[in-house]
Structure formats: C-alpha cells, structure tokens
Specification:
Double Stranded RNA Binding Domain, 37% helix
Length: 179
C-alpha cells in the first residue's frame, strides 16, 4: 500500500512520518484491499488536524481527527478510520452471506418446496417528495441498502438501492399490460 503524507503549515519530521505510516499500516490488517492511503496533517493556530483518506477497491473512506498535538490528532483519525474499515468489512461480509442465501432460496423455488413467507417486522414509512440524489443521501445516512421515496419530478413511488459493486440503482414501477 502506498502512503502519501502531506503537511500543511508545518515541517514533517521523520519521527512523525514513521508514526503516521505505522498507524495507517495497522489499518491494513483489518482490510487488505487498500490501494493507497493519504494523510493530510495541518496546524492552524493551536488546532492540530489529521485527515486520513483510504482508497480501497471500489470505495473511498475518510476520517478526520483533531487534538492538542499532531500525535493525538493522528491517533483520533486512525481510530475513526479503523472503525469505518471494520464497518465496511462487516457490510461486505453480510452482502456475501445474503447472496448465498438468495442462491439457496432460488434452489428451493426451483424444487417447488418453498415454505410460507413470514414477516417479522412491518414498518410504516411516510413518503416524502425527494430527488433521486436526496433519496440516495437518506439511504446512506440511515445505513440502509435501499430507500423508498416519492420522486419529486414524476410524483411516483421509486426505490433507490445499493448494488453489489457499490453503485446505486433505481427501481421505477410501471404498470404491466394485462392480457
């Protein structure tokens, strides 16, 4: 993994460089698909900030930390980044599990032996007029894989969802012609 370190308004010393590389290198043990990382260290008056940006396959993660000195700021940013990487890794694992469940479900349907569908939770969600971008933002903010919304332009119910490749998809219902 390549690590780029940028210092703003300060001189980057060798011990500080080694400390940042050590902290960012620790993150790689949680997630091995990191392509490159960038650390931006800055000082403005008495505020020391460290920003860490990781570019993994198909994902960019960013964490910001501030503290009384640069070492504390780097610690805070790396701790936040570790939490994000762990969360991202768990999300990937849960997606892989759900895809294997879907495969076994389709096998059951093909065999004709599908048990009755049970709903454990039914949620009532108020529909608000949103743009597609706003709906995607709501989905990300809530941490869901999909979000139902009323499209502001067409006034139709639509669903924005997270695809396995990390992009978003949009479901637009259409009336089928009855035969």
């Amino acid at each position: 993994m390549e690590i780029q370190i940028t210092a703003r308004h300060l001189k980057l010393t060798q011990p500080l460089r080694e400390y940042v590389e050590q902290k960012i290198g620790r993150i790689q043990r949680y997630f091995g698909n990191i392509v490159w990382a960038q650390a931006i260290l800055s000082v403005e008056k008495r505020n020391h900030q460290a920003e860490v940006v990781l570019h993994a396959s198909g994902q960019t993660l960013r964490a910001l930390g501030s503290g009384g000195d640069l070492y504390a700021a780097v610690d805070m940013a790396s701790d936040r980044m570790e939490a994000q990487v762990k969360k991202y890794k768990e999300r990937l694992k849960s997606r892989h599990k759900s895809s294997s469940v879907m495969g076994s479900l389709s096998d059951q349907i093909a065999d004709g032996g599908l048990p009755g569908v049970r709903f454990s939770v039914v949620k009532r969600v108020p529909l608000r007029p949103l743009s597609r971008e706003e709906a995607g933002g709501e989905m990300e903010l809530m941490g869901y894989d999909f979000w139902v919304f009323l499209d502001r332009e067409s006034r139709q119910v639509q669903v924005v969802y997270r695809r396995q490749d990390g992009t978003c998809g949009l479901l637009q219902p259409v009336r089928s012609r009855e035969r």
